[in-house]
Design brief:
By secondary structure, this protein is an alpha+beta fold. The chain has two domains: 101 residues, no CATH class; 127 residues, Gcn5-related N-acetyltransferase (GNAT) (Aminopeptidase, 3-Layer(aba) Sandwich). The chain is built from six helices and eleven strands. The protein has a seven-stranded mixed sheet. Strands 6-7-8-9 form a four-stranded antiparallel sheet, covered by helices on one side. α1 runs parallel beside α2 and α3 crosses α4. It comes from Zalophus californianus (California sealion). InterPro entries: Acyl_CoA_acyltransferase, Glycine_N-acyltransferase, Glycine_N-acyltransferase_C, Glycine_N-acyltransferase_N.
């Protein structure tokens, strides 16, 4: 989808065979400028009809750049076992995180703007000047690579935020390179005001209006977000979202 909209992350698709493919991997184009420590941008998404075809793609020469830190994402369980086995054979460290997969349907609740009264706070969108705050507050952030990644996401994809009377973001969510809603966050002093729900539902409607899927993921122990998603009638999918971060020995120090 993003490849057909200007391809801002310079992606390409690799398949095991064509036209009768059994495995698909999206990756960065080889000519794209890369940072070997940037697992945010060095990202692969995986889908397969036969996990053995996926394993064969992983083992093929030049499909994956095993000499950099990178991530693999997928919604199928064998992604974890197969990726881990091949990575171990190449002596890479693997960090796996698994999430509940969620989607917002057209039947989800409508945004409630009652939380916004008067001229402030106001509902708007993020800009690149907000990236430092997002980098500092993201559990996955706090580094130079994440800051660059967030700037790119804000520049390329839909976002929503609530700003206070000084124009500072107090609650927000944005969209990642795989059209997934991510980094939904409200500053602690502004919680319990309905902002998170307002932001999530507004972004979902914004994505749907632009032809994007309305999808996200949430950790099993994030009870506050799970409760919010249930309240707005989001659908918890039967599959899980898996993210593996793989690190070569040269960068594991």
């Amino acid at each position: 989808m993003n490849m057909n909209r200007g391809n801002p992350f310079q992606k390409e698709v690799v398949v095991d065979s064509w036209p009768d493919f059994k495995a698909v991997i999206t990756r960065r184009q080889k000519e794209a400028e890369t940072d070997n420590l940037d697992h945010y941008t060095n990202a692969y998404a995986v889908f397969y009809k036969d996990f053995r075809a996926y394993q064969q793609l992983l083992e093929e020469h030049d499909v994956i750049n095993w000499d950099q830190v990178f991530q693999i994402q997928g919604l199928q369980n064998e992604v974890c076992d197969v990726s881990n086995a091949v990575a171990n054979s190449k002596q890479l460290g693997v960090k796996l995180t698994s999430f509940k997969a969620v989607q917002f349907s057209p039947h989800s609740a409508l945004p409630d703007t009652n939380a916004l009264k008067g001229s402030s706070p106001r509902l708007t969108y993020l800009n690149t000047a907000d990236a430092d705050l997002l980098n500092r507050t993201w559990s996955r952030g706090g580094n130079e690579q994440c800051l660059r990644y967030i700037v790119k996401l804000i520049s390329c994809f839909p976002s929503v935020c609530v700003r206070d009377d000084k124009g500072n973001p107090v609650s927000w969510s944005l969209t990642d390179q795989f059209a997934t809603m991510c980094h939904g966050y409200t500053l602690p002093e502004h919680r319990r005001k309905g902002y998170s729900q307002l932001v999530a539902l507004t972004l979902a409607r914004k994505l749907r209006s632009q032809g994007f899927p309305c999808q996200g993921n949430v950790l099993d122990d994030n009870t506050a977000s799970i409760s919010l998603l249930k309240n707005v009638r989001a659908e918890f999918l039967p599959c899980r979202f898996h993210r593996l971060i793989l690190t070569p020995a040269a960068f594991s120090g």
